[in-house]
Specification:
The chain has about 300 residues and is mainly α. The protein contains 15 helices and 3 strands. It folds into 2 domains: about 100 residues, DNA polymerase, domain 1, CATH 1.10.150.130; about 130 residues, Intergrase catalytic core (hpI Integrase, Chain A), CATH 1.10.443. The chain is globular, with a radius of gyration of 24 Å.
Length: about 300
């Protein structure tokens, strides 16, 4: 089954142009199915019955995975069976995989503006790594980039004079995102003061290199963010994606329109961006409450 998985993922890379992170996620999802089938003593994907596939879907739900994770897993499995020709020969097998769980039944977790301020205004330490880390976190919040987009930024992807960053998202789609004054300022400090000390005589195109001249890893960024959150006194569990959610939420709270946020986040469909409409609804309700001339007041009853 591993051979089949790799053949399918190769076709996604070559023909579908999927990003490496998406391919890696699909690999983990398909390995879940492989391991589940192994517990049923099923050695081939095509030997799985409709009932077994239904049980696999229930098993995903029982693991209390996020709805988005379950949806992605089912998409990967659905694609695999189509790749194997099941869509034409055994369409009933795909039936349990057609419907995806309702996504975003829970609102995205975000940091408050106070928490973001605590995180971004940590006193700088003496090491060049600390200035680099501060610049990375500031830039992530200021642009709403995915962490994978941030760590793969190169020097040529940033134009400080104009004030934008060129991000490469899913399916290698590129978009231009404004930097913001504060992020531009701390990025300049990092480039002038810390980056040369990190690299010494090494040459690297990575915007945020390690001392070896290599790009940061996602795991490395996650650990660094956790440490900085602890220093800032933030007690809730924090993730890089929470900064992306916070970026979008705070923009909408301050009056940005949904279409602009969609473009900055790099969502292919505005339907994806609409997970943040709860913010827009709350803001509109407040505007109505504050500005509508017909305020609630006790009606006087004439005697």
């Amino acid at each position: 089954m591993d051979t089949v998985i790799e053949e399918y993922l190769t076709s996604l890379r070559i023909e579908g142009g999927l990003a490496s992170n998406t391919v890696a996620a699909y690999r983990r999802d398909l390995q879940k199915l492989r391991d589940f089938l192994a517990t049923k003593e099923i050695a081939q994907f095509l030997h799985a019955s409709k009932e077994v596939i239904q049980e696999f879907r229930r098993n995903l739900r029982d693991q209390q995975l996020a709805a988005s994770s379950i949806a992605r897993c089912l998409a990967a499995v659905r694609g695999l069976y189509r790749f194997l020709g099941v869509a034409g020969s055994q369409p009933a097998l795909l039936a349990p995989l057609v419907g995806s769980p309702k996504q975003w039944s829970r609102l995205p977790k975000v940091l408050s503006e106070t928490e973001v301020t605590l995180l971004l205004e940590l006193p700088l330490q003496r090491s060049p790594e600390d200035l680099r880390d501060a610049a990375m976190v500031e830039l992530l919040y200021a642009t709403g980039l995915r962490v994978s987009e941030l760590i793969h930024l190169e020097l040529s992807h940033v134009n400080r004079d104009v004030g934008y960053v060129l991000a490469t998202g899913k399916r290698d789609k590129q978009r231009v995102v404004p930097l913001g004054e504060k992020a531009n300022q701390i990025l300049a400090e990092f480039l002038n003061q810390a980056r040369p000390k990190l690299l010494k005589k090494r040459i690297s195109q990575a915007l945020f290199p390690t001392r070896r001249g290599e790009s940061f890893t996602r795991q490395g960024f996650w650990k660094m963010l956790q440490a900085r959150a602890k220093r800032a006194g933030i007690t809730k569990t924090i993730s890089p994606h929470m900064l992306r959610h916070s970026f979008a939420t705070h923009l909408l709270e301050h009056g940005a329109d949904l279409r602009s946020v969609q473009m900055m986040l790099g969502h292919a469909s505005i339907a994806t961006t609409q997970i943040y409409t709860h913010v827009e609804e709350t803001r509109l309700k407040k505007i109505h409450t504050d500005l509508f001339p017909r305020k609630h007041r006790q009606r006087k009853i004439s005697k």
